[in-house]
Amino acid sequence: MSEARSGVDTPGPAQRRGRLGAARLILILGAVLLVGTACVRFPAPPSDPPTATAVPPTPPGARTDVPREPTPNSETCDATVSLRPPAQMPVPGQMPVRSTMADILGRGRLIVGLDTGSNLFSFRDPITGDIQGFDVDIARAIAQAIFGEPTVEYKVLSSGDRIRALHDGTVDVVVKTMSITCDRVRDVAFSTPYYVASQRILVMRNSQVTTARGLAGKRVCAARGVTSIGRMQSIEPRAKMVTTTTWADCLVMMQQGEVDAATTDDAILAGLAEQDPWVQVVGPSLGEEYYGVGMAQGHDDLVRFVNGVLDQLRISGGWQQIYNRWLSILGTNYPPIPVYRE
């Protein structure tokens, strides 16, 4: 006699064991996930926040131990008076026998001391690599008068090396924004002035400094060996002078916040301002500077010859052309009137 079956199947022993195993597996997996999740939630061990420090590189040769220097032209002298040029200039390529110019002609080039960091006066063109500027054109005019063409060799000098280079014969002339002063005429034979500049101040545009008095306690940069240092120390003794090898270094230190200002002649400062729109020239003139071509003492014939070249530039309009080419940013200007002695 057969048993009647209900409509619901009853699991057998094998099925029950399978379901039990599956349940255990689910419990184990759940535990693993729980443990894994719990591990992720543990906080990371404490660590110091990331740090980064950068010290602005100070230009080589920068100094803060600047001694007191004399005020330019603090004594009375006729520093800008120079030797009268010859009544008739020699023909280019035919210099007087046994003259300093004949020696230069025989060598085949005029050796000129200048620098490549005074924008507008003497600097290296970033595209062509040529040295050019107002001082360069004055030097080329001197060479043109000797050779008939501007045959020049340039020696790059710092401001502090100019006089030494003349003494040891490294260069024939220095055309490097070199101010004629009573102190320097003891060591250097100067031409008549070929440019007159005014000392002023260069600051960042957000600076509150507008006069020399505002530099009390401030760091003020200048290239070593220039007359601007002594004048600033005289006008504002509380200014903290910093000296560098070049004017370009002063601009870099201003950009890095290592100095508060720079001071020198307005023409040089205008050249720095052209390189950075965030700086500006401020304040009234602190004093005038007369630039002259520097030569070694004892070479009076060369001094007279150079004065003759400068005279020709004034009369012919050549000086005005050079000025308009490089310094028109400073406004209208004219060549200085020379004063001669015999």
Automatic annotation (TrEMBL):
One of its GO terms (biological process) is amino acid transport. The keyword Hydrolase does not apply. SMART domains: PBPb. The chain crosses the membrane at residues 25-44. Keywords: Membrane, Signal, Transmembrane, Transmembrane helix, Transport. Pfam families: SBP_bac_3 (PF00497). This is Putative ABC transporter substrate-binding protein. It comes from Gordonia soli NBRC 108243.
